[in-house]
Design goal:
2 domains
C-alpha cells in the first residue's frame, strides 16, 4: 500500500509550504511522497517550486475538487444560521470554501495518508501514525478534546443530543488541520448519504466557530468511522503541538519535556505575518528561528537579516511571554486534573 502526505497550499502560504517541505525532508519523511492540493488558482510560485522536487506532485483532479466544493456548498447553504451570520458579515455563502478542498485526500493516489495544513512543521517520524491506520480508519494526535466542544458542534442545537452521544463526542473531536486516514473512507456513496442528512436539517449542529473543521468532525462522528486519538488515549506519552506551548529547542527540533514533537502547528497565526517576516520585517512569531531555519534550509544566503527590536518592543514581548506561560501552566494543570 502507498503511504503519502497531503498539503493544502497556494501562493499566499508559499513561505509556509517551503518550510514544511524542507522539514519533511530532514525530519523523517524524506521518502514519503507528497501531494499538494491547491487551495485556489493562485499557484504560480508553488508550481515553480515543486517542479524541481522529485517526490512532490500537484493534485489536479478537477472532478474531485468540484465534487467536494459542491458537497461543502450544499451542506453549508442548508445551515440557516450560518447563512444569516455570514451574510451579515459580507462573507461568501461558504466561508473559506478552499479549506474544504482537503476532502480531496480521499480521492488521491495514497492508500494511507497524513494530512498537513500548510502552517505546520514536521519534527519527527510519522511511522507510528501509519501503523495505527492498520487498526483504525481515522487517526488524530491533538488536544482539541480538552477545548470547548462549541468550537466544533453547536451545543445550543436541540438536535445535537438526538443525533450524537454528547458524552462520547467530547473525547472524539479533533483538529482538522492535521489528521490521518485512508483513501475512500469518505467516498461518493457515503458522502451523498451524509449530505442528505445535513441538508435535511442536521447541518444546524455544526458550529460557526470553524470552517471545514465542524464538517469533518460531523462526517467522522455521524458515519461511525473507527477513530483513535493518540493525545486522548496516551496523554502521558504524547507531546503538545500548538505554538502557544513552551517547548525546548535542540538543533531546530522541538521537545516537550524531553519527548520529541511529531509536528508543530502554527494554527491561527496569519500567513501575512510570516510573509512580512520573510521580507525582513521584525515580526514576533513563536519559534521564529525554527521557522526561518526550515524556510531557508536550502538557501541560507537568502535569509533576511532582521534588525533587533527596540527596548519598548522587547519589554512588551517579555510581558506577553510571561502571560502566555502563566496561562499555559493553568491549562496544563486543568488537563492533568481531567485526565485523572
Amino acid at each position: 500500500m502507498a503511504d503519502g502526505i497531503y498539503i493544502l497550499a497556494n501562493d499566499v502560504v508559499f513561505d509556509h509550504l517551503v518550510a514544511l517541505l524542507n522539514s519533511l525532508e530532514v525530519n523523517g519523511a524524506k521518502d514519503i511522497p507528497v501531494c499538494i492540493i491547491p487551495y485556489d488558482d493562485r499557484m504560480k510560485k508553488v508550481r515553480v517550486e515543486i517542479a524541481t522536487l522529485h517526490n512532490v506532485t500537484l493534485f489536479e483532479n478537477t472532478d474531485s475538487i468540484n465534487f467536494w466544493e459542491e458537497f461543502a456548498t450544499q451542506a453549508w447553504t442548508s445551515h440557516r444560521k450560518a447563512q444569516k451570520v455570514w451574510q451579515a458579515k459580507g462573507w461568501q455563502q461558504v466561508h473559506c470554501l478552499g479549506m474544504h478542498r482537503k476532502f480531496c485526500c480521499f480521492d488521491g493516489p495514497f492508500d494511507k495518508f497524513v494530512y498537513f495544513d500548510c502552517d505546520t512543521l514536521l519534527m519527527g517520524s510519522l511511522d507510528y501514525i501509519y501503523q495505527k491506520l492498520d487498526e483504525f480508519d481515522w487517526v488524530a494526535n491533538d488536544f482539541q478534546y480538552t477545548s470547548d466542544i462549541n468550537y466544533v458542534f453547536d451545543l445550543s442545537s436541540e438536535k445535537l443530543p438526538k443525533l450524537l452521544n454528547i458524552n462520547k463526542l467530547q473525547s472524539h473531536i479533533f483538529c482538522a488541520g492535521w489528521f490521518a486516514s485512508k483513501k475512500g473512507i469518505l467516498n461518493r456513496t457515503n458522502s451523498k448519504q451524509l449530505l442528505k442528512k445535513l441538508t435535511s436539517g442536521e447541518a444546524e449542529i455544526l458550529s460557526l466557530r470553524g470552517t471545514d473543521q465542524p464538517l469533518f468532525n460531523y462526517l467522522v462522528a455521524r458515519s461511525g468511522i473507527s477513530f483513535y486519538n493518540f493525545a486522548y488515549h496516551q496523554p502521558a506519552l504524547v507531546t503538545g503541538n500548538h505554538w502557544s506551548s513552551q517547548f525546548d529547542v535542540i538543533d531546530y527540533v522541538l521537545y516537550d519535556k524531553g519527548r520529541r514533537l511529531t509536528y508543530l502547528h502554527y494554527m491561527s497565526i496569519s500567513a501575512a505575518k510570516f510573509t512580512r517576516l520573510c521580507a525582513g520585517e521584525d515580526v514576533e512569531i513563536p519559534y521564529r528561528d525554527v521557522f526561518l531555519h526550515y524556510r531557508y534550509l536550502n538557501s541560507p544566503e537568502t535569509q533576511p537579516k532582521l534588525a533587533p527590536p527596540n527596548l519598548l518592543v522587547r519589554l512588551q514581548r517579555n510581558i506577553k511571554s510571561w502571560v502566555i506561560q502563566k496561562v499555559n501552566n493553568v491549562q496544563f494543570k486543568l488537563r492533568n486534573f481531567w485526565d485523572r
